Amino acid sequence: MTNKSRILLGMLTPSSNTALEPITSAMVSSLPGVSAHFSRFRVTEISLGAGALGQFDLENILNAARLLADANVDVIAWNGTSAGWLGFESDEALCKQITEATGIPATTSVLALNDILKRTGVSELGLVTPYLDDVQQRIIANYARNGVRCTAERHLDLKVNFDFSEVNADTLRRLVHEVAESRPQAITTFCTNLHAAPLVAALEAETGIPVYDTISTVLWSSLRLAGVDTRELTGWGRLFTEVE
């Protein structure tokens, strides 16, 4: 931990997301002095339609970020995966704008995942999402352009964001195990409205493959930016204890 008595992590949250807040709070509950704080902006559908893409307008997100800044948070994190289909440069621009607007360092689920893949030398990735086929193909294409090949993928062809949180644990386990059959170097559960993070440690033990959930990746990055030793967070997978 740092010498600071309190570490406040700000999380930008899709309005219809009901998974990331309780999961993130549960994860940090074992870290003395660390707490997560949330600000929402409207996101109800994930698709490539104009209305759905418009939900991620920069000003909508910046308004939510400014509210987090009122709480003097140490980090502002976009706890979402939209850069997967919008392009990674969208998150890079978002982080730059957040820091310019608030003076607070920023990170995102996707940029954190990309950093982790680079640090661990992953070039073959298994992908599990709840998304529509065309959204999934955009994600796969963006990773291919970034030098990461998707060896296997599974998606549920859903588009209503709230419905993602209703996907049960048995379904998530099945999808991860199916993707694991291709023996990728890592697997990602790529959506912050899935209840996948609590399953990661068991899935890693069962498959022998690192599993990087996108709620976990952004927390890992946020803790590092705030000066917290992620190795203190145990029971949530190899990411926190092994990736430096």
UniProtKB/TrEMBL annotation:
Pfam families: Amdase (PF17645). InterPro entries: Iso_Racemase_Enz_sf, MaiA/AMDase. This is Asp/Glu/hydantoin racemase. It comes from Pandoraea terrae. The lineage of its organism: Bacteria, Pseudomonadati, Pseudomonadota, Betaproteobacteria, Burkholderiales.
